[in-house]
Amino acid sequence: YINNFHNFTIDYFLFSLIIYLYLFFMEKLLLTYIQILQLISFTFLMSLGQVLFKKTALTLSVTMASQNSPLGLIEGTVKALSVPWLYMALCVYAMATVFWLYILQRVPLSLAYPFSALAMVIVPVIAIYLFGEKLNLSYWIGVFFIFTGIIIIAR
Known about the structure:
- The chain has helices spanning about 1-25, 35-65, 75-80, 85-105, 110, 120-130, 135-155.
- By secondary structure, it is an all-alpha fold.
- Helices cover about 80% and strands about 0% of the residues.
């Protein structure tokens, strides 16, 4: 039953995303299709960065577990500098920042910024598959409000 609910929620999320984006952009096309693709690509790039930061944190957790003691702020920072996931995350964020500057040269901030909220939807969905995290009904209600907010704000 839970597996079926899980599959339903993922399908619902993808279906809702497509419908919201279609209705928003077909009703009043404020952005070109290329700009929409760029904004969605930016959001996925930021989401990838978050996933890589999580991989860094998990690596540090394994280190901490093997030492049977929590890492302090300075010790944790020094250990993080030896984790390759951290450097990949920072590189992805650097690319995303440059891409964001490129986008902002062509798209008004008031239209571009609401797309960054999509990362709050994408990252937890990715976390289901990569890290086995669970999402509850309140998350999906929040997703609905995020999509609604993007539509309202970006008009």
